[in-house]
Amino acid sequence: MSKNSKTKCFLLLTAVFFTLLLAIWFMIPGEITDSSSKLSMICRDFSMEILSNDALTCNYSLIHMEDYGIDEPESTLHYSKNASDKMCLFYENILERLASIDLDELSDEEKMTFLVLKYSLNYAILTNDYFIFDEPLSPVNGVLATLPVLLSEYQFHSPKDIQIYLNILKSIPGYFNEIMTFENEKKAAGLAISHEQCMVVYKQAEDFTCAKDNILITTFNERLNECKDSFDENEYKSLIAANDSIVKNDIVPAVNRLAVFIKDFAPEGGKTHGLAGYDSDRYSTGNADPGSHSTGDADPGSHSTGDADPGSHSTKGKDYYKLLLAYNTGCESSPKDIYTMLNDTLNACVNNMKEIVLNNNDNPENLLQPAIPPVVKIGGSFSYKRIIDYLKNKCSDSFPPLNINHLYEVKNVPRSLADTLSPAMYFIPPVDGPITDRIYVNSKNADLTDIFYTLAHESYPGHMYQTRYYMDTKPDTIRLLLNFSGYMEGWATYAELFSYDYDGLEKTTSDFYKYNKLATLCIYSMADIGIHYYGWTKENCRSFLRKCDIKDKDAADELFLTVASEPALYPRYTVSCIAFINEFKYAKECLGSSFSPKDYHDYLLKLGPAPFSIIHEKITSYCRDRLSK
Asked: What 8-state DSSP symbol labels residue 270?
């Protein structure tokens, strides 16, 4: 090769090198210009921030956190307005970055991700203005009801996970101190929880500290035993001793201090009432815009007690409830319109039940007695797993099958938590690998007349099925981290109603029980709006329930306490379920004879969790596309 040829070759290679260098330069994240790549970077950054700042969320979401660039997530639990404000600054930064994206450049799936992320961030920022109204010690979703179970299900994927877990345990006393500080701030702002609510929490603390077998010791030993081969004998014994010491010397005393705090706090606690009775400027910026929610307070329907003040007076508590109701249900109608929808659904259910009773001339009184579905004892014996397998097979006519070999296990709720936990729970699996799904059943609270429908809610075609079906589409991780509890619980309740067609009872009996279930949920959700938006007192609630033929005073007062303690809890099941029912009816009416429940559910499930404004737009497009074929 001549000298000139070598020179030309060198210059050519140099040119190629600089071309590659420029290409790499333009690939630097800060220089990305196309909207698809921008969104991908935003989703990655958001997921990283959420997972790296919360070891519990990280463990539940990932098996291999190192594959996501996470070395050791933050293991110290916090509860404070400062921590919440810090996250909101991050959310605002994400929203600013989303504003630079051109939706026309995104695929349909990317548009969904963009829309649900923007929706979630906006509501998180708005509700942060009302942080003082949050209640970390609520009886159903508060820390004493949920934290022990969350910790007991923390998975030991690697030795590092065990150390992170022990660090989480060590932070719990400080975490409880922050909660007690917050409760004192609420009291100073006139927002203290009531004596009745305090006593429920006190009982939870007492159950935890007095349990013969502490859940944090027994479950740790069980999980460690499953990975015993990863340690030598001394290491194994050292970890057992370390956990035992932290639980007995740190956590149990911390729960005892919280119990004493609550017991002393209780006599000074305010009278039990809903959010409508609260008003506080503390922590509120005054800038929160509840969006499309109406503030008009009309008479809440024909089942109203008539005692709610229909005037225009608004409180910070009511404003917060409007936001909470919208976010928890995924439905942005006003509380007044939602109440009307619930009332209409209730009346329709009652009329259907009356018609069934009138047409059942033989033994109409039998309909009023709860019956155990024959399928509960399939093969002559009782088995949770057998019921779930039966449901999986029976629902296949209306719901498409999973494309994976799906494994699951059913576990019993620990005895120490049996008095306070719901009849059953499903734990969402990690996003990055196959793992056995877990359903907890509370045998103490599991009624044989309800267990079939409860398992349908949690398994097939409810939570477990919906989660696995969507995960099989391989969505962006961010879609699995965003919290759309209305969609999740609404779907599970919607699926539960389908299960009444599979229970083995006579159709009229099954239909009666199905209408009764939905009617009951409507009553509870109407009470929720009445208490938290219309300002119903305990007597107002009793009066409302009497009109719904619920005359037991103790039952009425127990419902009042539960609803007052957990705003927008029942609506996330009921309102969202009705939204799913309405979408089904809409698609069926649009498509007529070409409507296929299985095809419809396939499309709906692949959309993933989202608010119903977005879902309805997508279902409308689905119908339009099917009609054009």
From this structure: P
Interatomic CA distance for residues 528 and 525, integer angstroms: 5
- For tokens 């305090």, what's the residue? 198
Cα separation, 616 vs 585, in Å, equals 12
Give the integer Cα–Cα distance in Å for 586 and 621.
12
Length of the chain equals 629
Q: CA 171 to CA 520: how far, in whole Å?
A: 41
In whole angstroms, give the CA distance from residue 135 to residue 565: 8
Handedness of CA 265, 268, 271, 275 (dihedral sign): negative
Rounded-to-integer distance, Cα 569 and Cα 521, Å: 11
C-alpha 60/C-alpha 406 separation (Å) is 18
List, as one string, the DSSP characters of 62-115: -S-GGGGT-SS-------SHHHHHHHHHHHHHHHHHHTT--GGGS-HHHHHHHH
pTM, 2 dp: 0.88
Q: What averages of pLDDT result for each successive group of 10 residues across the chain (629 residues)? A: 41 38 40 86 95 95 92 94 95 97 96 97 96 93 91 92 97 98 92 89 92 91 92 95 98 97 75 79 36 34 39 74 97 97 98 90 70 74 87 95 86 73 86 84 82 96 96 94 96 98 92 96 98 95 95 95 95 98 98 97 98 97 93
Say which amino acid occupies 328. N
Cβ distance 566 to 138 under 8 Å? yes
What's the Cα-to-Cα distance from 2 to each of 5, 9, 10, 13, 242, rounded to whole Å?
Answer: 5, 11, 12, 17, 75
303-318: b (≥16 Cβ within 10 Å) or e: bbbeebeeeeeeebbb
Which residues, 6+ apart, have CB-to-CB distance to 179 below 8 Å? 79, 136, 137, 143, 258
CA–CA separation, 193 and 269 (whole Å)? 5
**Distances 409 to 227, 391, 457 between C-alpha atoms, Å:** 18, 15, 16
The per-residue pLDDT for 238 is 97
In whole angstroms, what is the distance from residue 413 CA to residue 458 CA? 14
Separation of alpha carbons 525 and 342, rounded Å: 8
Amino acid 448: pLDDT: 81
CA 144 to chain CA centroid, nearest Å:
17
How, if at all, do strands 408-412 and 437-441 pair? parallel
- Tokens coding 390: 């039966």
Task: Phi first, then psi: give them for residue 439, nearest 5 degrees.
Answer: -120, 125
pLDDT, position 488: 97
DSSP state of 421: S
CA atoms within 13 A on the CB side of 464: 27
Helix or strand holding residue 117 (H, E): helix 108-128
pLDDT for the residue numbered 3 = 43
**Which amino acid is it at 546?**
R
